[in-house]
């Protein structure tokens, strides 16, 4: 939805609401302005509201706008508008650095530094964020990127999003982290049990069909269905729609309807030949590098069995066993509160830390 013209005026807010009503195929002549003292009182955070049928169109001077279900009576409308204004006030308040936790400060540093992972920052640029805090910080970074229309918020924009949400200002729980590394580029992707190989939003935006054209997936109706359309001219790609076979940067992927609506792009797993010891060793090193990336610490040494041979030919199980081993090392020996190995038993946060790290390395291993 396009917003009203800025800086906001009464005429601009009305023109925007008229356009919204017309776009729904309704008659804008019956659009009514809603009077509410708090909207006109505040010079900086106020704005204008209009109603039409069951919909309220609210445009605020801070540039935000949106539609709401009209409660249908004066007191209900006043209460709703007060809530909208309160959220705007929170969003626009100035947060001092001392009001931010270590996770939030590290995420802002990552945005300023232009890195896609908090772990990619040198340790001195993310004080207080070690292996225990990293999963939560990475989740927060992903959440802020997803909240931005461009997918790449400035630190200033992220600060406004943080200011408007008590949940995002609280320390994230490492056990509740729902993110995993994109299997193609290692950026962060939201994790669901059903789609452990889902790619990140950046990769999803560069999906190509067998005709080497960029394609986007969409649902064919409000309750599902799927088709892939070429981004250049909007024509339906019959091949990608029928089979879901697509590529991202030349790597095989599958695009299709997600179970609860929307569209998912998943990478098609590519495992090395179990008879090729060098290839298996390469895959094992990649796992160790991933653990290092996620924890922000040097890559852990590989155990002697890691590079094969893979006796039963099951490379996936072999690598899963290795990753589990490396994660256990990361979650115990590397924890700042319990620096020595062998203290796994009395490490109260270990399950949550390990779960967070597992999601960021190999979701299949998350306990
Ligand atoms: Zn990616
Ligand atoms: Zn095509």
Structural features, described:
It is a single chain. The chain has four domains: 10-92, no CATH class; 97-172, no CATH class; 198-267, no CATH class; 277-365, no CATH class. The strands form four sheets. The protein has a four-stranded antiparallel sheet with strand order 1-2-3-4, with helices on both faces. It has a four-stranded antiparallel sheet with strand order 7-10-11-12. It has a two-stranded antiparallel sheet with strand order 5-6. The protein has helices at residues 10-23, 37-41, 74-92, 102-113, 134-147, 155-163, 166-169, 201-204, 238-243, 277-295, 315-332, 350-361, and strands spanning 32-34, 47-52, 55-60, 65-69, 179-181, 188-190, 207-208, 215-218, 227-230, 245-248, 251-257, 263-267. Strand 11 and strand 12 form a beta hairpin. The chain has 367 residues and is an alpha+beta fold. Helix 4 packs across helix 5, helix 4 (102-113) packs antiparallel against helix 6 and helix 10 (277-295) runs parallel beside helix 11. It is 37% helix and 14% strand. The chain is built from twelve helices and twelve strands. The chain binds zinc ion (ZN) (2 copies).
């Amino acid at each position: 939805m396009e917003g009203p013209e800025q800086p906001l005026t009464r005429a601009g807010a009305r023109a925007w609401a008229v356009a919204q009503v017309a776009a729904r195929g309704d008659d804008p002549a019956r659009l009514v302005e809603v009077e509410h003292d708090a909207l006109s009182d505040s010079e900086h955070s106020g704005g204008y509201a209009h109603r039409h049928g069951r919909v309220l169109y609210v445009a605020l001077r801070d540039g935000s706008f949106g539609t709401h279900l009209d409660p249908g009576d004066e007191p209900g409308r006043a209460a709703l508008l007060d809530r909208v204004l309160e959220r705007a006030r929170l969003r626009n308040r100035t947060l001092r650095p001392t009001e931010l936790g270590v996770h939030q400060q590290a995420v802002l540093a990552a945005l300023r530094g232009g890195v896609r992972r908090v772990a990619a920052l040198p340790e001195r640029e993310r004080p207080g964020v070690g292996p225990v805090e990293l999963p939560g910080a990475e989740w927060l970074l992903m959440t802020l990127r997803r909240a931005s229309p461009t997918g790449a918020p400035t630190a200033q924009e992220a600060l406004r999003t943080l200011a408007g949400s008590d949940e995002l200002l609280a320390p994230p729980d490492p056990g509740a982290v729902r993110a995993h590394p994109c299997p193609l580029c290692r950026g962060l992707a939201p994790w669901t049990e059903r789609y452990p190989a889902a790619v990140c939003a950046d990769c999803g935006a560069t999906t190509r069909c067998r005709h080497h054209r960029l394609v986007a997936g969409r649902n064919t109706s409000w309750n599902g269905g799927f088709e892939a359309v070429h981004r250049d001219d909007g024509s339906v790609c019959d091949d990608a729609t029928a089979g879901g076979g697509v590529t991202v940067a030349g790597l095989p992927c599958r695009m299709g309807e997600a179970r609860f609506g929307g569209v998912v792009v998943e990478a098609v797993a590519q495992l090395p030949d179990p008879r090729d010891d060098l290839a298996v060793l390469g895959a094992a090193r990649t796992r160790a590098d991933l653990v290092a990336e996620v924890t922000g610490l040097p890559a852990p040494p590989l155990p002697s069995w890691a590079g094969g041979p893979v006796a039963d030919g099951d490379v996936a199980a072999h690598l899963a066993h290795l990753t589990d081993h490396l994660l256990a090392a990361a979650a115990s020996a590397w924890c700042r509160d319990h620096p020595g190995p062998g203290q796994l038993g009395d490490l109260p946060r270990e399950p949550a830390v390990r779960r967070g790290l597992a999601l960021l390395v190999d979701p299949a291993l998350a306990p």
